[in-house]
């Protein structure tokens, strides 16, 4: 799995690509923990290019959400589709997160209304 970080307004963005399973979820946890330790309180996890998520990956998302909520923050999931979206829906994990169709929606959250 490849992991990238960026920012959109006051959102820290974690982009995931490939498969999130027992072999890769530790890398995600390290990267997301750095963001939280650096003060990120709003984290958007971009799942658009994620092709698979296992129970280990789901556990990592839940742990991230708990950690951020403990600091009065929020975690959003963006761009979930296909098998990844189905797994998140079937396990009802999707109900624990704010959802965005894509990162463009995250960006619009921080724009002032005209």
SSE arrangement:
Blueprint: E1 2-8, E2 11-20, H1 25-37, E3 42-53, H2 55-69, E4 74-78, H3 82-90, E5 98-100, H4 103-109
Parallel strand pairs: 2-3, 3-4, 4-5
Antiparallel strand pairs: 1-2
Helix pairs in contact: 1-2
Quick overview of this protein structure:
The chain has helices at 25-37, 55-69, 82-90, 103-109; strands spanning 2-8, 11-20, 42-53, 74-78, 98-100. The chain is an alpha/beta fold.
Task: Tell me what you see in this structure.
This protein has a single domain (2-104), classed as 2-Layer Sandwich (Transcription Regulator spoIIAA). It is built from 4 helices and 5 strands, in the order ββαβαβαβα. The protein has helices spanning 25-37, 55-69, 82-90, 103-109, and strands spanning 2-8, 11-20, 42-53, 74-78, 98-100. It has a 5-stranded mixed sheet, sandwiched between helices. Helix 3 links the parallel strand 4 and strand 5 (98-100). The radius of gyration is 13 Å and the shape is globular.
């Amino acid at each position: 799995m490849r992991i990238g970080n960026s920012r959109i307004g006051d959102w820290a963005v974690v982009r995931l690509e490939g498969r999130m399973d027992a072999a890769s979820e530790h890398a995600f946890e390290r990267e997301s923990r750095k963001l939280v330790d650096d003060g990120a309180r709003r984290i958007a996890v971009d799942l658009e290019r994620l092709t698979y998520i296992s129970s280990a990956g789901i556990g990592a998302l839940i742990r991230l959400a708990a950690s951020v909520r403990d600091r009065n923050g929020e975690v959003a999931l963006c761009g979930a589709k296909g098998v990844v979206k189905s797994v998140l829906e079937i396990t009802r994990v999707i109900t624990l997160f704010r959802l965005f169709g894509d990162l463009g929606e995250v960006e619009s959250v921080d724009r002032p209304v005209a």
